């Protein structure tokens, strides 16, 4: 989602949740962060909202026929728009009632069309997040969000992502643990927060977590009228919609239930780490710049996304726990990686935007990140030059480190790779996994490098030295120092 400035919050959805940028955020100020409302919202072009016009009329017709009401009823809204997700339909419908200031329990045609057009025209990230957080806020306390309300919103985002998973619908046994980690991070044992606080926390820690819900809603609002017009029985699954959830390539070792990165954690990390790691495809350019192109541009931008494939590179329980094992399976992978480090108490993720390398200096681009995954979810740090790996250079600290302050790294793995310190607390390593987030060519190139290294080592092992070569060989000098000065120099 981009940061566009042409669309502001309409008068039907006022609130101060966008009044400040997230603490520590490096994404810059968004157009919805000023808290100022324009005197008159920018009117969408009439040609761009034909789908909404058709949908509104069809839903009113169905409501008149089935419920005897001249307007859109919750029953028909759920039945024909979001039949697979009744909880989403209930919150969405009541949100439209509230912002449309409807006096009855149905929505008049003009109000329905106006509010749906406003939602479809949202482009600013902060405005999108605020709309859905407010949608799931407490009915009894205006402007307050409870843990249960946020959990419901996050679960719908997860369910949508799993239902539209590229390899077919998925389930994850760890989803409750994953959602609880996010709730713990946001609420910190509090009973409720303001909408503004929750919006800022989501922006800072898991910026894109709500966008699958918005993409799905926009998709359904724009296309659902076709099925209703054609009297086609459809379950409202949003067929053909891609939500950019990374595909975890399941190797033999990942089939084990003890994997540190279940699919629900991948869904969460893809919404937290910079887009480099999930690589959503750019939408196709608009074919022309005429009056109707605006709709095509923002619909393509909201809906079009191609998921990446995360390839398993290293798992300590399968390949062994140690620095040499980590280096063997991780080096030479020329792409972004996620290093998952787990103890019995905490799980952290180091996001590296480029190939790992050994050096005595800190390195890494601006997409470097350190994330706490469990038991409390949080984006700990994001920025350049925060990665360090050294196992061979003398005179410098050994091990793997992450953090922008070299004197006090936030995460430090010792040189034996059997313990680590995270935010000043020592832990024993239970397991480490490394996932490659680059394209397929990155993995193939790494495997080719490893094959070449094996062939070269075998060739070097089988080389026979001539007598002349042996006289100048450094190993001969070392053996002489060890007390073996006499050799048969004529031997080949």
TrEMBL record:
Regions annotated as coiled coil: none
Biased composition (Low complexity): 19-35
Region (Disordered): 1-48
Domain TLDc: 285-438
Name of this protein: TLDc domain-containing protein
Top-level division of the source organism's lineage: Eukaryota
Biological source species: Iphiclides podalirius
Compositionally skewed regions (Basic and acidic residues) per UniProt: 1-11
């Amino acid at each position: 989602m981009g940061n566009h400035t042409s669309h502001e919050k309409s008068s039907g959805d006022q609130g101060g949740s966008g009044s400040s940028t997230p603490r520590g955020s490096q994404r810059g100020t968004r157009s919805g962060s000023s808290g100022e409302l324009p005197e008159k919202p920018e009117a969408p072009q009439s040609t761009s909202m034909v789908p909404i016009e058709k949908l509104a009329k069809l839903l009113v017709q169905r409501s008149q026929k089935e419920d005897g009401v001249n307007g859109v009823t919750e029953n028909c809204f759920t039945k024909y728009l979001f039949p697979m997700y009744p909880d989403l339909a209930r919150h969405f419908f009541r949100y439209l009632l509230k912002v449309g200031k409807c006096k009855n329990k149905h929505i008049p045609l003009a109000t329905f069309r106006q509010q749906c057009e406003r939602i479809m025209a949202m482009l600013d990230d902060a405005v999108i997040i605020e709309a859905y957080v407010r949608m799931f806020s407490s009915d009894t306390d205006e402007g307050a969000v409870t843990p249960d309300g946020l959990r419901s919103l996050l679960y719908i985002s997860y369910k949508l992502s799993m239902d539209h998973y590229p390899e077919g619908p998925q389930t994850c046994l760890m989803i409750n643990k994953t959602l609880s980690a996010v709730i713990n991070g946001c609420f910190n044992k509090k009973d409720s927060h303001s909408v503004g606080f929750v919006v800022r926390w989501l922006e800072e820690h898991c910026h894109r977590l709500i966008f699958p819900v918005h993409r799905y809603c926009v998709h359904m609002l724009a296309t659902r009228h076709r099925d209703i017009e054609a009297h086609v029985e459809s379950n409202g699954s949003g067929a053909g919609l891609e939500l950019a959830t990374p595909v975890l390539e399941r190797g033999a070792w990942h089939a084990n239930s003890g994997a540190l990165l279940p699919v629900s954690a991948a869904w969460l990390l893809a919404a937290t780490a910079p887009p480099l790691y999930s690589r959503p495809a750019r939408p196709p350019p608009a074919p022309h710049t005429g009056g109707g192109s605006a709709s095509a541009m923002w619909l393509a931008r909201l809906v079009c996304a191609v998921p990446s494939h995360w390839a398993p590179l290293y798992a300590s329980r399968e390949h062994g726990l140690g620095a040499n094992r980590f280096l063997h399976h991780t080096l030479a992978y020329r792409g972004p990686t996620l290093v998952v480090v787990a103890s019995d108490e905490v799980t952290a993720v180091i996001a590296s935007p480029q190939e790992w390398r050994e050096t005595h200096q800190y390195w890494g681009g601006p997409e470097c990140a350190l994330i706490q995954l469990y038991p409390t979810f949080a984006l700990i740090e994001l920025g350049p030059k925060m990665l360090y790996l050294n196992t061979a250079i003398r005179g410098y600290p050994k091990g793997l480190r992450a953090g922008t302050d070299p004197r006090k790294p936030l995460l430090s793995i010792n040189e034996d790779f059997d313990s680590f310190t995270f935010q000043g607390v020592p832990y024993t390593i239970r397991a480490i996994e490394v996932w490659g987030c680059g394209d397929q060519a990155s993995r193939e190139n790494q495997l080719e490098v490893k094959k070449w290294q094996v062939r070269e080592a075998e060739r070097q092992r089988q080389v026979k030295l001539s007598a002349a070569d042996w006289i100048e060989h450094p190993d001969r000098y070392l053996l002489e120092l060890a007390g073996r000065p006499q050799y048969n120099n004529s031997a080949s």
